[in-house]
Amino acid sequence: MCGIVGYLGPKPALPVVVEGLKRLEYRGYDSAGVAVVRDGRLGVHKSAGRIHVLEQSLDLNAEEGHLAIAHTRWATHGAPNDVNAHPHIDASGRIALVHNGIIENYQALRKYLTQQGITLVSETDTECLVQMIGLRYRGDIEQAVREVLLDIDGTYGIAVICKDEPDVLVAARKGSPLIVGVGKDEFILASDASAILAHTSHVIYLSDGEIVRITPQGVRTTTLNALPVTKELEEIEWTLEQIELGGHEHYMAKEIFEQPEALRNCMRGRVDGKHGTVHLGGLAEHWRELTRARRIVLTGCGTAWHAALVGEYLFEELARVPTETEYASEFRYRNPIIEDGTVVVAISQSGETLDTYAALREAKQRGALSLGVVNVVGSTIARETDAGVYLHVGPEIGVASTKAFSGQVTVMAMIAAALGRRKHMSQPSMELFLSALSEVPDKMQRILEQADLCREVAQRFHERDNWLYLGRGYNYPVALEGALKLKEISYIHAEGLPAAEVKHGPLALIEEGMPVVFIAPNGFQYDKIVSNIMEVKSRGGHVIAVATEGNREIARLAEQVIYVPDIIDPLQPLLTVVPLQLIAFHAAVLRGCNVDKPRNLAKSVTVE
Ligand code: G6P
Q: Percent of the chain beyond pLDDT 90?
């Protein structure tokens, strides 16, 4: 979604912020713009479409200013056109502002501004902000921003510059991330660490309700009420290399193929196979509360919600705690029951998804112990939870989530096992479980070696408009995830279902040759899924099965089989999801879709 970059320093600011915007492209956007202060002038350039369109309208070398802000916009209020693109400027033409988030009282502000004789030129909520700041400006941009923000309802991450103060970059946040990169004599502000990494790995994470004033002398952080806040300089653990393609054509392929390594990193120092123990530093102080938990609620959106569904099975089976999975967007608004002993776990790759964050806040307010299973270190959800476990799978850039899903499942498997062991699980059972978990990366690698087979499936069916994905037990969430991957990046309609449900309606969809993917590894529901395969097959469906190596029977039932190594039921999703990711990837490539930036979607959804 929307991205912010700002720069103040000795280098020409424009190339720096444009480069930063390119690093944020993966988040999804539909227009872009920059504003630069130079020789007492404010230059603003904006355009609908991709950053390279904006770049064509810029002379990067001509604009020598050292203070600039830039933005990629994902339209909410008003169409994605040049006028609605950010930065927006105030009526006097002095002040420029970029904004992520939504101003909820913008209608009232628009009315007020019109009464003051200000003509608003865009349809956005954002323009009200800059116009209000313009009205309050008396020579101190920070003060004007502060006064206006006290009247704002909604969420924001903003960066503001004023041509009369060429050495001041002001930023503030409430519900939308902002990070200040502190380099040698230079400062890079961004909504996402990937825009900062090329310059420095030293950062200050802003918290909600804080304003930052950046000048050549340094960074000063205060609350909205002007109370000073002491901030720590922190280190981003990701490297520039990790956010580059590394020889792959697509981030999604890179991220699918690096899953074995990502999971090794995720488990490193945590799974101790020798002693049959799990160490999760982030939860160290909470095991007492966790072992007493009466109910666990897992919440998230999209792929994270699918991982949570796997988690539900894991927590109930391994830890024997009643667990339910909730869409974050539903949970936050439905007056959820949080009793004593309820633990709420927010699952999120980015740690910035607004609905997940809001669900977490709701749970916290009602007294739940809140945990996070998050990938991005220092992200909003990671900072707001009482405790948590990072995925450590490295940056995920492709909009369609892959390695974060496997990381989320792995982390929940570790937590569930550690909790189970503290409650009822015997040491030998724990050792068996951890040894199976440790084998996952190598087994995944074997599946990745069959990528060509997945490509063949995609080759044969990428022109079909409807697919079904069916699974049972631990593989039911995998069916949902397989269907979501196909929808997201290839725009093929696909549905995922618990396999037994197919006869309660969806069977009516089956027609000759329709691709139906069964996730059917060996396990305690295998015989049941074979019956479901027969039901589909006898109605003309073309069965593609994901099955366990050595299973010859299934080759007689299914038209195509992709084999995965044998593994215990609870860990099957980590293997069975891989062929489905590959099928979706190849289908999208064959259909000529933009795999990493699918239409209409965003990597991190920071609006409701
Ligand atoms: C967006 C992304 C999905 C992701 C979901 C939740 O819709 O496109 O890939 O699963 O948000 O994101 P999160 O960062 O909270 O895991």
A: 87
